[in-house]
Design a protein that fits this description.
binds 2-phosphoglycolic acid; 8-stranded parallel barrel; 237 residues; globular
C-alpha cells in the first residue's frame, strides 16, 4: 500500500527574529514528528544558524534568491548555488510582498531558472488582490500568474502556494469553498502540491488542511510562536 502523501507546513518568518528567537524557536520544534514535511524560511542571515539548530526533520527554505546564476559583481545578492551550498533545499518565489516591490514575471522567471539549475525547489506563490476577487477575475489572474510555470520541467519538484493577498496578515481567510474552488482549478492546470497561505492559525488549520486539493500551508504570523506553529503542524498530521 502506498503511504499517504505528506502535507507541507512552512514557517515563513518574513523579516522577524534575532539570534535568541532562532534558538528558542528551534528548541520549540523538538516535538515535530515525521508525518508532516515541515520547512522553515528564516531571513537569509539566519539560514545557517537555523539549519544548525533545527531538528533534522525540518528543512530549510530561503525567502528569496538572486536572478543571477553565476557569481559576479552583484552587491547584496545571494545566489541559488550559495543557498544549496549551505544546505538550503527550497526557496519562496513570487510572494506577493516581493511582487509588490516590483518583481516582474521576467524577474520571477529568472529566479525560477536559477533555482532549477542549482537544484533548489521553488515554492511559487500566486494570489489575487481583493479588488481582483471582487471583480470576479480571481481565476484568470491566478491562471496568468501560473502560466509562468508552463516551461517548468515536469520531472523537477515544484510547490505552488495559493495566497490571496487580502488574506495575508489580515486575519481574514478565504472560505473553505473559495479555497477548494481555487485549488481545484489550479490542480487541473498543474499537478503539484498546492499549499494555502493567508492567516492560517491553530483555530482554522485543521479545516483548511483537510480541504480538497490542499497540500499544506504556508504560515506567516502564526509561525513566529512555536506553540502555534506546532499546533498547525499537528493539524496537518
Ligand atoms: P500570514 O502570512 O500567515 O501572516 O497571513 C502568510 C504568508 O504571507 O506566507
Amino acid at each position: 500500500m502506498n503511504s499517504p502523501v505528506k502535507k507541507y507546513v512552512i514557517a515563513n518568518w518574513k523579516m522577524h527574529g534575532r539570534n535568541d528567537f532562532v534558538q528558542d524557536w528551534c528548541q520549540g520544534m523538538a516535538a515535530v514528528r515525521g508525518s508532516v514535511q515541515v520547512l522553515v524560511a528564516p531571513p537569509t542571515v539566519y539560514l545557517q544558524r537555523t539549519l544548525d539548530l533545527a531538528p533534522d526533520l525540518i528543512q530549510l527554505a530561503a525567502q528569496d534568491v538572486a536572478v543571477y546564476a553565476k557569481d559576479g559583481a552583484h552587491t547584496g545578492e545571494v545566489s541559488a548555488q550559495m543557498l544549496v551550498d549551505i544546505g538550503c533545499q527550497y526557496v519562496i518565489i513570487g510572494h506577493s510582498e516581493r511582487r509588490a516591490l516590483g518583481e516582474t514575471n521576467e524577474i520571477l522567471l529568472q529566479k525560477l531558472m536559477c533555482s532549477l539549475e542549482a537544484g533548489l525547489i521553488p515554492i511559487f506563490c500566486v494570489g489575487e488582490s481583493l479588488e481582483v476577487r471582487e471583480s470576479k477575475q480571481a481565476w484568470s489572474f491566478v491562471q496568468a500568474q501560473l502560466s509562468l510555470l508552463d516551461g517548468y520541467p515536469k520531472e523537477k519538484p515544484l510547490i505552488v502556494a495559493y495566497e490571496p493577498i487580502w488574506a495575508i496578515g489580515t486575519g481574514m481567510t478565504a472560505t473553505i469553498e473559495d479555497i477548494e474552488h481555487m485549488h481545484d482549478l489550479i490542480q487541473q492546470m498543474i499537478d503539484r502540491p498546492i499549499l494555502y497561505g493567508g492567516s492560517v492559525k491553530p483555530s482554522n488549520a485543521k479545516e483548511i488542511l483537510n480541504a480538497k486539493a490542499v497540500g499544506g500551508a504556508l504560515v506567516g504570523g502564526a509561525s513566529l510562536k512555536p506553540e502555534e506553529f506546532l499546533a498547525i503542524v499537528e493539524a496537518a498530521s
